[in-house]
Design a protein that fits this description.
159 residues, alpha+beta, Aminopeptidase, 7-stranded mixed sheet
Length: 159
């Protein structure tokens, strides 16, 4: 765990803060910038993802540094539907910490796999987190990678 980083559930009043963070992280890549700016609707964090406790925030000293969204699909698999870290905080272990929390959440809900549709530029990150490539996907902004990771069995013990 990165020093001083805590993970907590997002609150509804943070929706805009998280979307702004997603914009900053997404606009880093010049090859996507023009298309994103032409389609501002592409970046929206549905309020329901926050209200249904699907969104976790990483913060240090009260400053939001990243967030993740995990959704359970009808087939029982979990999808890492969003993972964004403040660009100034990249390479500090925050993304990996958020992935670990996503794995814990997904496994605790009975998912065997955590899937992600990843930006090809993030392949090294997801490889390092233990994801495997399963194929290619076409998104509205170009090609992406379909990846997945088998989750450990997680049992909650009641006392």
């Amino acid at each position: 765990m990165p020093p001083g980083i805590t993970i907590r559930l997002a609150t509804p009043n943070e929706k805009k803060t998280l979307e702004d963070l997603q914009w900053r992280a997404s606009l880093v890549w010049p090859e996507y910038r023009e298309a994103l700016l032409a389609h501002p609707d592409a970046i929206e964090l549905p309020l329901g993802h926050i209200e249904r406790n699907r969104t976790h925030v990483a913060e240090r000293d009260g400053q939001v540094l990243g967030f993740s969204v995990v959704l359970i699909r009808p087939n029982g698999e979990a999808e890492l539907d969003g993972l964004f870290v403040e660009p100034a905080a990249w390479k500090q272990g925050i993304g990996r910490f958020l992935v670990s929390e996503a794995e814990r959440l997904a496994a605790s809900e009975g998912a065997e796999w955590l899937t992600v549709i990843a930006n090809p530029k993030a392949r090294g990150f997801y490889d390092a987190c233990g994801f495997e490539l399963t194929g290619d996907e076409q998104t509205r902004f170009g090609p992406a990678l379909a990846m997945r990771k088998r989750l450990p069995v997680f049992r909650q013990f009641k006392t």
